Amino acid sequence: MNWWQALILGIIEGLTEYLPVSSTGHLIVAQRMMMGNLTGQEKAAADCFAICIQGGAIAAVLGLYFPRVRQMAMGMLGRDKEGLKLVFAVLAGFLPAAIIGYLANDWIEEKLFHFKWVAIAWFVGGVAILGVDRWMKKGGGSKGVELAEITIKMALLIGFAQCLAMWPGTSRSLMTILGGILVGLRLSAAVEFSFLLGLITLGAATAKKAVWPVHDIAEKYDHKLGGALLMWDSYGPVPLLIGVIAATISAAFAVKWMVSYLNRKGLGVFGWYRIAIAIVAAVMIATNALGLGAG
């Protein structure tokens, strides 16, 4: 991987991580288009890179939502009751993904990390967005509660919705935002909770990928490398640094734009976008464009 590929992947990660369009799906396509159909150690390193540059998106949200994060920190120190309540809600939302992700991760990577499943998820998610957007414009969800009123039950249900995003192409942001709306949060509150839940969910996924031994590579190359060492061995430090910085900057812009746009226009545009790229993806699969039909 060279510097410009790392830059493009970092920008894509930052722009799509918190938008309900699936960063994983976009990164899978971008990697295939720029780097070809990778196998073995090269594929494992590229997969680790796509996960670890999430650290940039995490940093962006930490900066933009620092007052809320600080409130949660004060809550854990016993100085802010509302902050402590939000900490428990975020932990409850994370719990389903922690358990199901641990049990199903290998199966998901083997069965669903293929282009055809990404395309299907894009289309299904797009239809779901349009349905919820139409329901909201007819008055559905207009009496939703603010984030301070979230309950553990609501957070758990959002957490189970987040688990559906383990299907690449679905979008963690999509499922947590829709889950938040459907359990009774206002749109703005659902978006903020999605961002906060993403801090721990993405943080855990990034940390796991960085330090966990890549077992399939260990079997083939007779060594056990964590994701970070595997990337260092394959690319060196510069591409990862470029990817993380690009993801941080682009995620900050994307989050600020998204919050402003959703408050004015709603979710509809993301549904149409997902359907459009699903159709493009279907054509690419049918024609085997750039080898994308192969997986």
Automatic annotation (TrEMBL):
Keyword hit for Cell membrane: yes
Enzyme Commission designation: 3.6.1.27
Bilayer topology annotation: Multi-pass membrane protein
Top enzyme class: hydrolase
Localization per record: Cell membrane
Transmembrane segments: 44-66, 86-105, 117-135, 173-200, 238-259, 271-292
Catalysis performed (reactions): di-trans,octa-cis-undecaprenyl diphosphate + H2O = di-trans,octa-cis-undecaprenyl phosphate + phosphate + H(+)
InterPro entries per UniProt: UppP
Alphabetical keyword list: Antibiotic resistance, Cell membrane, Cell shape, Cell wall biogenesis/degradation, Hydrolase, Membrane, Peptidoglycan synthesis, Transmembrane, Transmembrane helix
Primary location group: membrane
HAMAP family with a match to the protein in the record: Undec_diphosphatase (MF_01006)
Additional note from the record: Bacitracin is thought to be involved in the inhibition of peptidoglycan synthesis by sequestering undecaprenyl diphosphate, thereby reducing the pool of lipid carrier available.
Family, similarity comment: Belongs to the UppP family.
Protein's job: Catalyzes the dephosphorylation of undecaprenyl diphosphate (UPP). Confers resistance to bacitracin.
Database matches in PANTHER family: UNDECAPRENYL-DIPHOSPHATASE (PTHR30622:SF3)
Protein name: Undecaprenyl-diphosphatase
